[in-house]
Amino acid sequence: MPKTITVGLIGFGTIGTGVVKTLQMNGELITKRLGAEIRLKKIADLDIETDRGVKVDPSILTTNAEEILNDPEIDVIIELMGGYHPAREFILKGIENGKSIVTANKALMAKHGEEIFEAAEAKGVSIGFEASVGGAIPVIRTIKEDFAANEILSIFGIVNGTANYILSKMSDQGEDFQDALKEAQRLGFAEADPTFDIEGHDSAHKIALLATLAFGTRVPIDDVYMEGISKITQDDIHFAKQFGYRIKLLAIAKQCGDSLDIRVHPTMISVDNPISNINGATNAIEILGNAMETSMLVGEGAGSLPTASAVVGDVIEISRNILTGGQNRVPARSFLKENIRTMPIKPMEEIESEYYLRFYVVDRPGVLSKISGILGNNNISIGSVIQKEQKENSGVPLVITTHTAMERNIRNALAEIDKLDIIKKETFYLRLEKEG
Amino acid sequence: MPKTITVGLIGFGTIGTGVVKTLQMNGELITKRLGAEIRLKKIADLDIETDRGVKVDPSILTTNAEEILNDPEIDVIIELMGGYHPAREFILKGIENGKSIVTANKALMAKHGEEIFEAAEAKGVSIGFEASVGGAIPVIRTIKEDFAANEILSIFGIVNGTANYILSKMSDQGEDFQDALKEAQRLGFAEADPTFDIEGHDSAHKIALLATLAFGTRVPIDDVYMEGISKITQDDIHFAKQFGYRIKLLAIAKQCGDSLDIRVHPTMISVDNPISNINGATNAIEILGNAMETSMLVGEGAGSLPTASAVVGDVIEISRNILTGGQNRVPARSFLKENIRTMPIKPMEEIESEYYLRFYVVDRPGVLSKISGILGNNNISIGSVIQKEQKENSGVPLVITTHTAMERNIRNALAEIDKLDIIKKETFYLRLEKEG
Question: Which residues of A touch B309 (CB under 8 A)?
């Protein structure tokens, strides 16, 4: 007698359709691995009329999610509706009814994860959220299981495909930010309102989730520093290349003693680091552990089938737990509940990094000496200097990279420098990462 | 009362020492994740005198592996002695005594895996072998679990750090094969007898294991085609660059209908493919699935602590299974025993690929026409041609890349061409991979 795991899907959009397709395409194969059939019993969505390009028995469609939440036959609920409400309520209700949950909802998990994890722990059900970070990239299970023998020291991630697509276009095709954004919107890589992706919110949600798992800490999502990519110009792209760097929107989490250095910002990464070569909508996450050294995971960070691959992977994992009775095999947050701590987030002003400073100055002798004097007074030592030959209306670009300095000192120095009459326009700076 | 998982280690060499260090360094952290202590009760090695640079209570050392195999308290045995005998007998005895096994022994698992897997399945114990392929790279668990929703279509791996180190040296520093090999030996990246690494045996073991898991098939290890890197010259490296390729020792496994295309050989890979940028002793494995698309895993493929990271990761995984009673949660070979099949291996002569052909010819008109005529007669169409200007004693290098052709046709054409008096030395060829 073949065993069956019964699943209900809430949210029949792009990813939901991918889940249905994946189960249809690979269901037989999955059964050969799992030893049980995954049966999709119900799909709930407000819109059950639109043709999604996938064949579904109409009798399994419903507009009422309660039919899934309250169905005693359903073992696992897949939540793919997105947003905070009513996704949160549906998930909590499902847990209360003894169902395991699979979700791709990073915003929800970053904001309400603790409540959801604790509810699942209390009820002894599983919560799978592999699809919430990095699409098909297996970063969540990898941190929780494969790398569990390591103290994890840092995570660097290109986790937003929209921003990476735009930066790649700017770098490879010499396009300005606005043109690259328009192209991305035309191709469906960016939303009509792209703020969430290009200003770093999405990356912040994802790195907060990864930091929770890697370091066993709560991360108040609103305290994660974010900086977007909209201020980056072709000059910056050009200078980065000259210095041997590429600019990527990087989500960073590092353990610094007892505090957590967590932030999202465009970063200049050395071309020697393979993560600098990850282009287009592809995502990559680099994890440094004290035994494994550096490991990098690369793959499709979004899209219907790649994200569905992670969703169905979670359903299979939970099915194995249900079939063998090991529901609490791995703690939802990687650490046992009693070992989750609250690490303070390092204030941005206290982080240390190397920096790229791009000035627009008047073309006059003594400019460099004035600027370098102020940098020196602020304990910032200079790594290299490039001055572009041709003049522009907005002044001559002058670029300085620094050795490791404290962010506060950089900000103070630039505030002072920007008051000088030799400065033609507000100075822009980026942080550099050499290591991985 | 804290729970304890009791472990015995057989083989106190480089990796064994790494395991002891990892448990000492991260034991407390592991307990916070696992909810149990991993206790190393015994270490067996023929040499228990040498100082390994790690502090161990002398009373846990023994020269008699039986003390571990027969200790009723021991839950998990870590086998790190390597080789076929007595590693095989020890593992089978351990299984018979109801112990789960963790091993890094790829040669043993590639040759005697089926026997060991079946013994473990029959006894209901777990067998962890994550460390046997790609060191710290979590490729085995990823194929078995994270990517379980996919039909896996192909695997491309740089899975031998020695060969990759040598090829990187040849490419980046213009060194000849012999010099690069000597340098690798001096730095400990290559053995005194490097055959196993540079001729592809090690890569063949690893790709055979991965193919078993990915495709659910038995792979008779002696039938895997192998070709090493010792014939590659600076001319080849140079031409590869001109065509926009890099040369890597690639382990390849593809599902071709009902047959398995599995082989190890130096391959020219387009620089647009991120795997071509993986240099030095680093390993990388690219997996293509029908839902996830391409995923690449990169990391340290060898070394004491990185390999130990995977070994201890397996111990943690098995401990979770023991603690929650889910010992048979995931089939050892990824597919249920009854679904393991025997796919025939595609004969090398029948594979299809693009090719790089490097001739040394006399400098005389009509040479290209003769060669291209024979290629055409063998159904091989030409992609591009480069002829090096300067003459050498051994003739003028002439390089041709082809469109997709059948290996048999290439071999036949070259056999015919090499008989011509315009050919100064045996023609060399490499296969090209454009996609991932």
Answer: 147, 149-150, 289, 291-292
